[in-house]
Design brief:
Elements lengths: L7 H5 L3 H14 L6 H13 L5 E4 L2 H11 L7 E4 L5 H9 L3 E4 L11 H7 L4 E5 L10 H11 L2 E5 L7 E2 L2 E2 L6 E5 L13 E5 L2 H11 L20 H10 L3 H17 L22 E4 L3 H10 L29 H9 E4 L7 H17 L1
Parallel strand pairs: 2-3, 2-4, 4-5, 5-8
Antiparallel strand pairs: 1-9, 6-7, 8-9, 10-11
């Protein structure tokens, strides 16, 4: 479309020569699994995240599953999380045999509401799994205080938010573990599947390393049932090319978010909010309006892409019907699911593109 929702080719196009050289280096070296590129990427991310050990895995979903497994979350345990997220967050909880407990979100940031979390803690609660959704940091200071008070572990789902900051520090440095996804459309992208687990200490990291490789340290002795989930060196080499550019890409996303406000979109739609002291990196730009379908149709007519994310919140998905949630249980998440629309957002977005989006939305709302 004239204004795409994302433009990953434009993002990696200028780096094509570096990408080709990185791939050639892996091919020439002949190390494809658990090789030097993966170790170098783990070391670079660890250095940024307060020295926390980092372990590459096959994808972001596996990162969540393995993190929960390594923290001994399993059958009989409850994990409090958000209903307004991609399915993988809740799926990972179910995959380890635990039960997701959904609670409502903040209407400004779309992240977990700490007061709602407090109200859902019960005798089986073992963990909190906040999501730094759409690039906005979850309220980690409050959530960590709740976790300490009740003896809970915390896993940060950071798949959409590399580089985002809470007032107290960068995301993925608070919980017992944090996870990233390197899916190509993420703001920390690769060119295929990939993921990473960030660990509170080396002991946890050692277990994550063992779990990602069939429960073994050496391919000879198998200590537990694990997974076949490793970040390959070709993917790690490409991600390392992108890594130095992430902060610049995030800054351009934030600039584009400012343009939406300056072009007057806030007079028509509820814009994504930012908590005091937080740094939003706008993985997705989610604005809300009750007439979402009309706006989306007008954007399509103007050759502008848009998308509905998480239009059915997790607590109302058929797979979790047995948990007994009904419509109206989590009203803020349900309202966001009905009204939020992802508008174009990527580092290559121009002021003219943003103006085109706002004009199209304005036209349909002014006509009726």
């Amino acid at each position: 479309m004239a204004v795409p929702l994302m433009d990953i080719q434009a993002q990696y196009g200028p780096l094509r020569a570096e990408i080709d050289a990185a791939i050639a280096g892996v091919l020439d070296g002949g190390r494809f699994i658990l090789g030097p590129e993966g170790r170098a990427l783990e070391a670079s991310v660890s250095e940024r995240l307060d020295g926390r050990p980092c372990v590459g895995v096959a994808n972001g979903t596996d990162a969540l599953v393995i993190a929960l497994h390594a923290l001994d979350i399993g059958p009989g345990d409850e994990v409090i999380t958000t209903p307004y997220t991609f399915y993988a967050t809740a799926e990972a909880i179910a995959r380890v045999g635990a039960t997701p407990v959904f609670c409502d979100i903040d209407p400004v940031t779309y992240c977990l509401d700490p007061d709602a979390v407090r109200g859902r803690i019960g005798p089986a609660t073992r963990a909190i799994l906040p999501v730094h959704i759409f690039g906005h940091p979850a309220p980690m200071a409050e959530l960590m205080a709740i976790a300490r008070e009740h003896g809970l572990v915390v896993v940060e789902d950071s798949a959409q938010a590399f580089g985002a900051r809470a007032p107290e520090g960068e995301i993925a440095t608070f919980g017992d573990a944090a996870t990233f996804s390197f899916f190509p459309t993420k703001n920390f992208p690769g060119m295929g599947d990939g993921g990473m687990v960030v660990c509170r200490d080396e002991e946890l990291a050692e277990r994550v390393r063992r779990l990602r490789f069939h429960g073994s340290k050496d391919k000879v002795v198998f200590e537990e049932v694990g997974y076949n989930s490793r970040l390959d060196d070709l993917q790690a080499a490409i991600i390392r090319v992108f890594y130095p550019h992430l902060d610049g890409w995030n800054a351009r996303r934030a600039e584009a978010a400012g343009w939406y406000a300056e072009e007057g979109l806030g007079e028509l739609m509820t814009l994504p909010g930012v908590a005091p002291g937080a740094t939003h990196i706008y993985h997705l730009y989610m604005a809300r309006h009750p007439r979402r379908a009309d706006i989306q149709a007008a954007l399509k007519q103007a050759d502008v892409a848009s998308a509905v994310y998480y239009g059915i919140p997790m607590h109302l998905q058929p797979v979790f019907a047995h948990l007994g949630y009904t419509e109206g249980d989590l009203p803020v998440a349900e309202e966001c699911a009905r009204t939020a629309l992802a508008l174009p957002m990527h580092p290559g977005l121009t002021r003219g593109d943003v103006a085109t989006v706002v004009r199209a939305a304005t036209a349909v709302l002014d006509r009726t």
